[in-house]
Each structure stands twice: as C-alpha cells, then as structure tokens.
Design goal:
The complex is a heterodimer of chains A (110) and B (348). Chain A is mostly helical and 110 residues long. Helix content of chain A is 47%, strand content 2%. In chain B, β13, α5 and β14 form a beta-alpha-beta unit. The complex binds flavin-adenine dinucleotide and iron/sulfur cluster (SF4) (3 copies). One iron/sulfur cluster (SF4) binds next to α2 of chain A. The site of one iron/sulfur cluster (SF4) has 13 residues of chain B, from β12 and α4.
C-alpha cells in the first residue's frame, strides 16, 4: 500500500481521570516533604547530570505527581545520589531520598 | 461646637473610621445603603490567614460604634453640595445633613463571573464563585453539588476577572490567591476524601502568615497546585465539569473532571463608589477606583478638599489593610479639621 505519510498522533494531554499516581502517594508517605515542591528549579540547576544530559530532577518529580511514569525508570538511573540538590532546595525537600525511594519503588514494582 | 464628619459606606472601613473619629470627639454620621453594617465581611465564615471567625471581627467593629455615632441604614445618597468648606448631603427622603468633612468608604463589588463565558458560570450547575462557597460554609449545611452529590474533586480557578485585559481589569485583586488556599484546606477539613486543585498563574502569598498557610495546604492538606490558566470548562452528562489547562511547569496540556468548580472572583469598584465619585467629581484611576493624591504620602486624600477615602474604595485589599487604612483616614481627617493639612508638607 502506498505510504501517504499519515499517522495517528498520540494524545499529549495529561489525563487526570486515568493517570496512575501510586508512586506519588508512596513518596508522599515515605518522604512527605515532596509535597512542598514549588518547581523553582534550583535542584535541576545545580545537578551535574543535568548539565550533560536531558536529566531534570524537578521535572521528574512533577511527572511523578502527575502520574506520568513513562521514562522515569530510565531517567532516574542517571542520578549519582550526590545530594547537591537537597543542599540547595529552598523548601528543604529531601530530594536525594525521593530519588532513592523512587528507585526502591520501581525496583519492587517491576 | 465640635466639627462633624459624614461617612458614606458602613463596611469595615466605614465602621472603624467612625469609631475612631467619634472617640476623638467629632460628630459622626454614617450612611449605609444596606440593612446591616459590615459590608462583605457579613458573608465570610472564616478569615485567612488564621481561620478565625469573621463574626469575631464584626463584633469588634460593632463595639467601636458608640451611641454618639448617628447610623442611618437603608439609606441612599442622592445629592451632595458644598459651600464655604461645608458639605450638604441629601438622602433619598430629601433630608439634608451638614458636615465639615466627608469620608467615602463605599468599597468594592465582586466581578460578575458570567463575563468569563469560557468558565460557564450561570450556564453550568456546578460552577460557583468563591463568595458562594463562603455562603455554603456559613450555612453549616453539608457541602454537596447541585445534584446533591458529595464532591470527590474540586477545582479552584484563580484570577477570575483580575489580571485580565480582556475584561478591562489589569490589576491583581490581592486576596483571592490566599482565599483559594484557605478554602481548599477548609474543603479538606469538611471532606477529607475530596481532592482539591488550585489552577494559578502566580501565587501571591505576600502577607504575614500567607506563605505558612500555603505550605500547610501542600504538606498537611495535600492540596495540589497546577500552574496554568484554565482555558475552558465543559459540562459532562452527570453535571461534573471537564476542565482543560496547560500545565505550564510540565509543558503539556492537562484535563480532569471536577464535581465543583470554584471561581476566585476579583474586585471591582462598587456601584456606590462609582456613583459617589461622579457626584463629587472625584478623580478615578485607570482601574476605576478612586484615586488618591499621592500613592506614597497622601493615601487618604482625594482631589476634592475635605473629601477623604479609605478601604477598598481605592484598591483591593485585605481586612487587615482596610482597618489600617480606616484608622489612618481618621487621623488624616482629624488633622484637617484641626487646621493641620498634610498637603502643606508637600506643597511649598
Ligand atoms: C471571597 C472573599 C473572601 C475574603 N476573605 C477575606 C479574609 O478571609 N480575610 C481578609 O483579610 N480579607 C478577606 N476578603 C477581603 C475583604 O472582604 C475586604 O478587605 C473588606 O470587605 C473591605 O472592606 P470595605 O469596608 O473596604 O468594603 P466593603 O466590604 O465593600 O463595604 C462597603 C460598604 O459600603 C456600602 N455602600 C456601597 N455603596 C454605598 C452607597 N452609595 N451609599 C451607602 N453605602 C454604600 C456597602 O453596602 C458596604 O456595606 C475577602 C474577599 C473576598 C472576595
Ligand atoms: S529546588 Fe526544591 S522546591 Fe525547587 S524545584 Fe527542586 S525540589 Fe522543588
Ligand atoms: S543527587 Fe542526583 S539529582 Fe541530586 S544533584 Fe546529585 S546527581 Fe543530581
Ligand atoms: S491574588 Fe492571586 S488570584 Fe487574585 S488576582 Fe492576584 S494573582 Fe490572581
């Protein structure tokens, strides 16, 4: 069949009626400070990994909140757990522990 | 004989200024168009930032109103004349009252949410205003939507009728961000299983204890904040609403259904404020509120000698700032009547 170049576009909308926020609720339980994030981006700006790759910590946390788990497992591996992000966060969020707990969650829910 | 002041508008600003002026020995007459004194405060159950009862503040204001103050409720002003530094105010019964100074405290009106058609207020059952949610809280009845269902998810839309050039209001109404945060936490207290979402452009948490309330909303009450201005709300078959917004922090569009949508309506100069400004030829600023002669130094002074302003008549503000402003206006008027005018400090 001739290829006319048409394809079905994926829906880009975040759908709050169907998304899966279990990871967020898990993190909220084990590291309640995650709720305080204001998306200021200081953590991402200090992160050495973010300087050289697409890795972006505050976006990852936001995706977790919105129930968008795709790509997270792959992304979060890049973190070196150096803890610089926790040092600079104005809200005192234990970002390092959030990454740590996310890895644990993803590992046990494989 | 001691000098006399007429105060027009018996909300917070009018009551507190009357109390101070009377305590300083002036003859005070207060006109209020409604049946009761108190203005908008009569409609709010609990106040940000502390969640104390609005009725407690009203009791405080009432205690300030001593017997010497002549209060005229259900009164409309039809005419104001001035002659030789005196003002003559005519009411709807053609009675004339005389005063040496006037204080205008006619306050604000709420933005009419029907003007933002895309949110469906007045069209869809379950789109309500922040003021209507206060009425629900005040009634003490269970929180349910129009279909009698206990809401599982409620959305709060910030900046409805404010910061919006299209409706002609470029200014920020200052109290609606913190009111949304307060109301979202109250919903969580009433209905612990109900999710709450605030859709905001910026969160303006400038006042004492506001940021703390916001932190508490996030950490203790689990309110979710989504940065983005709602583009539209559509009613679904069961009366809930499908809302669409760009989640600007994620950079993707987002949709969700909510059982109740609360519009955080902004302030506009009240009809009374506009009427009195016209009658007295008072300058108004680009937002339609009464203009003060100098934003920093002559904050209660208008372009007409002997006419002063206080409270939300000049711009949106909190109760705390309204009370400050009313007391400042009383001091200003006392100076004027004792022949010390602050203008002498700025004019050489
Ligand atoms: C939903 C909502 C919740 C709020 N919650 C809080 C809160 O929790 N804490 C807080 O600090 N602030 C709150 N505010 C702000 C608060 O309502 C105002 O700061 C306060 O009401 C301002 O008082 P005012 O006296 O300036 O004006 P108003 O309350 O508007 O009073 C004006 C008075 O003048 C009368 N009047 C008008 N025209 C005439 C006329 N021509 N002749 C005679 N009388 C006239 C009116 O009837 C009224 O009684 C809230 C606002 C909104 C919209
Ligand atoms: S620095 Fe803290 S508040 Fe800012 S985005 Fe990162 S985690 Fe969130
Ligand atoms: S702990 Fe991970 S995310 Fe945080 S700064 Fe270090 S590498 Fe970046
Ligand atoms: S206080 Fe907040 S909701 Fe109200 S107009 Fe200002 S930014 Fe918008």
């Amino acid at each position: 069949m001739a290829d006319f170049g048409y394809k079905i576009q994926e829906d880009r909308q975040i759908n709050y009626d169907s998304n899966d926020r279990t990871l967020f609720y898990f993190l909220k339980r084990v590291e309640p400070s995650i709720s305080l994030c204001i998306g200021c981006g200081t953590c991402s700006a200090t992160c050495t990994v973010g300087q050289f790759t697409q890795f972006d910590l505050h976006k990852i946390m936001l995706y977790v909140r919105r129930g968008e788990k795709v790509h997270i497992a792959n992304e979060i591996k890049k973190c070196m757990l150096c803890g610089k992000c926790s040092l600079v966060c104005p809200k005192g969020i234990n970002t390092r522990n959030i990454i740590f707990q996310t890895r644990k969650f993803l590992h046990s829910n494989k | 004989m001691s000098k006399s002041v007429i105060v027009i508008g018996g909300g917070i600003a009018g009551m507190e200024a009357s109390a101070y002026l009377s305590a300083m020995g002036f003859n005070v007459t207060l006109f209020e168009k409604d049946e009761k004194l108190g203005g908008h405060l009569l409609n709010w159950e609990r106040l940000f930032p502390t969640k104390r009862l609005g009725s407690e503040v009203l009791t405080f204001l009432k205690k300030g109103m001593d017997d010497k103050i002549k209060v005229h409720t259900n009164t409309n002003i039809t005419k104001i004349n001035s002659e030789n530094g005196k003002y003559f105010v005519t009411n709807h019964n053609n009675e004339i009252f005389e005063a040496d100074a006037l204080l205008i405290t006619t306050g604000y009106d709420l933005f009419d949410a029907r003007r933002k058609e895309e949110y469906g207020y007045g069209i869809y059952d379950n789109v309500i205003t922040s003021a209507e949610l206060e009425t629900m809280f005040l009634s003490g009845k269970p929180i349910v939507n129009k279909q009698g269902k206990v809401p599982k998810r409620i959305g709060f839309v910030h900046c409805v009728g404010s910061r919006d050039r299209k409706v002609g209001n470029v200014y920020c109404s200052k109290v609606c961000c913190v009111t949304a945060v307060k109301q979202a936490t109250e919903i969580r207290e009433h209905l612990p299983d109900c999710e709450t979402y605030c859709f905001y452009m910026d969160l303006r948490m400038y006042g004492a204890k506001f940021e703390e309330l916001y932190n508490e909303a996030q950490e203790k009450y689990g309110v979710t904040f989504i940065r983005g201005r709602l583009s539209e709300a559509n009613e679904t078959i069961d009366g809930s609403l499908l809302v669409k917004v760009e989640d600007t922090l994620v950079g993707r569009p987002l949709k969700m259904t909510v059982d109740l949508l609360v519009l955080m309506v902004g302030f506009e100069p009240s009809k009374g404020t506009k009427d009195i400004a016209r009658i007295l030829n008072l300058s108004t600023n680009s937002n339609g509120f009464i203009e003060v002669v100098d934003e920093h130094t002559l904050t209660n002074v208008t372009n007409q000698k002997g006419v002063f302003v206080a409270g939300t008549t000049t711009s949106p503000r909190t109760i705390t700032n309204t009370i400050y402003d009313a007391r400042a206006a009383a001091a200003e008027i006392a100076c004027y009547l004792n022949l010390y005018t602050i203008e002498s400090r700025v004019k050489n």
